[in-house]
Amino acid sequence: MNTCKRIVLTTHGTLGDLHPYLAIALELQKRGHKPVIATSEYHRRKIEAAGIEFHAIRPDISFDDKELHRRLIEPKRGVERAIREFMLPVLRTTYDDLLAAVQKDGGADLLISQILIFAAPLIAEKTGIRWVSTELQPGAFMSAYDPPVLAPFPALVKLRGLGSTFHGALFRFAKLTARSWSEPVRGLRRELGLPPGKDPLFEGRNSPHLVLALFSRILGEPQPDWAVNTLVTGFPFYDENSSNLAPELAQFLDEGEPPIIFTLGSSAIWDAGNFYVESIATAQRLGKRAVLLVGNDPLNQPSQPLPKNVIAIVYVPYAQIFPRASIIVHQGGIGTTGQALRAGKPMLVMPFGGDQYDNGARIERLGIGRTIMRKQYTAERAAAQLKQLFDNPSYRERAADLGRLVQTENGVRVACDAIDEQLSQAT
Length: 427
Description:
- It is a single chain.
- By secondary structure, the protein is α/β, with parallel strands linked by helices.
- It folds into 2 domains: about 250 residues, Glycogen Phosphorylase B (Rossmann fold), CATH 3.40.50; about 160 residues, Rossmann fold (3-Layer(aba) Sandwich), CATH 3.40.50.2000.
- The protein has a 7-stranded parallel beta sheet with strand order 3-2-1-4-5-6-7, with helices on both faces. Strands 10-9-8-11-12-13 form a 6-stranded parallel beta sheet, sandwiched between helices.
- β4, α6 and β5 form a beta-alpha-beta unit.
- It is globular, with a radius of gyration of 21 Å.
């Protein structure tokens, strides 16, 4: 019996949307399978450098169009625009691209998809390929029992105590409001001769076989209104193969106390605004050392010579740098949040949009961090928040305790064991 199976993993977005699937693909490859990652052309080099087969699907992403990027991460309508203006207008093209990846080399044995790949459920239904859906953050489940903080309505964090009846009604209304967004999916279903199906933005995105929740139970426990076939795996961390830290960074880290690390992940970093200027001033106010992870955007490069207690670096894998931090200041993306959790460090979260408001709220409820709104991010206010984190040892102790728990989890192994079980059932 041939145990080597061809598995197509498909995702779209930034590094936080790629890394979990890359980690899973590498483990599947070790187990003798043939994984393929179908995603934007933008990620080709990284995927192929890791030794994983790549297949391009559209739309492609680009960070050259700053105005488009700002529109997609803006809190009020960013998610709506990402769906209605970016992904769904080319749904048929995405379907054709992904179908080609599934049918290549005699056909795949399993399809694993991320939330934005609306073509995946249609391909599974049309072709009969076994399908596994995934969620990267607990807020994506829209649970009335564990209500997320939605970016367009951050004040929802104050209504959490109203209970599941209130939030269930609220989310049902939200789903009705968003129903028109997915008309292109229903149109393509009709074209393909498929029945109307469930709401593609919500219930219709859940596989009938298996839903993998690719995060730690520390961040979100299963709820009564989750899909019953959901498995919480733990974070499937992708630890990049890289050489030692750059000499200047290694020297800086070795010369003094652990620094504050300021970063905006792989998405918000392209719309940083005054974040780095205010962060430098914040470190000076506190008299603390700081590392700025500024990315490739020239606008983020310091325009003035940096103080001796601050260093700016384009990029370094979080797994290498976060354990060396005192506190981590970040945007609240799920990938960054997971790495900071594993490092066992307190956090100050400044959300931009999407899931970041909810992730930040969860960090606050865990007692390992605080949040600050983007419009309020000034040196004075950020320093006041960080002082609370420095002065109260409970943040450090609690973060360290949870970090040790996350380190014991093995999200990659748990996910791949479940995938292997799906393959055996399909066979």
